[in-house]
Amino acid sequence: MLDPTTTHSPDAYIACIPDDVLHEIFYLVVASSRTLGEYRHTKQNGSGSIMGIALSHVCRYWRTMALSSPQLWTFFHIVAHTKPAMLREFLARSGMAPLTVLFEGPDTYWISVEHMRVNARILAPHAHRIAEFEATKLLQGDARCMLALFTAPAPCLRTLRLHVDEYMSEMEHIPVFAGQMPSLRNVSIDGLSLPWVPYSNLTSLVISHHPAPPLTELVSVLQHCPDLELLVLVLRVVSGDEDVAEPSPIALPRLQRLALEWIGDQHGIMHLLEHLSFPATAATELTFHGERNAPLDLTQHSPALRARVAAIRSAEVCTDDALGQTSVRLSASDTDADADRAFAVEWRWASTAGGAVGGFEHIGLAAVPLPALERLRLRDTGRVRYGAKWARVLPQIPPPVAVAVQLDRATDFVAHAFLAAIRPDAGRVACPRLVHLRIEALWIAPLDVLRDMVATFGLRGAQDVCVCSLHMQGTSQFKRHEGLVAELAGILGTVRLS
Question: What is the pTM (predicted TM-score) of this model?
Answer without folding.
Answer: 0.85
